[in-house]
Design a protein that fits this description.
single chain, alpha/beta, four-stranded mixed beta sheet, 30% helix, 24% strand, elongated
Length: 80
């Protein structure tokens, strides 16, 4: 049975704990590959990635996103 988000990639900000972590896990359960973003808790993000990886998702990654106004330059540090 095909899952609703199979073949999609979800970037979830604030996913190292709380609601963000729950959303990341739900997207993974629906078949999405998930980028787990964190601002300050790499350990928390790594725990979420480990939990997602157990579900058999193609990949789950932790990374950080930073931005600076006014150009909103975005940097991703992602391991896939």
């Amino acid at each position: 049975m095909t899952k609703k988000l199979e073949g999609k990639v979800a970037v979830v900000t604030g996913a190292s704990k709380g609601i963000g972590a729950s959303i990341a896990k739900e997207f993974a359960a629906e078949g999405a590959s998930v980028v787990v973003n964190y601002a300050s808790s790499k350990a928390g993000a790594d725990r979420v990635v480990a939990e997602i990886a157990k579900t058999g998702v193609d990949y789950a990654s932790s990374g950080w996103i930073t931005h600076s106004a006014p150009n909103l330059d975005v940097a991703l540090d992602i391991e896939i």
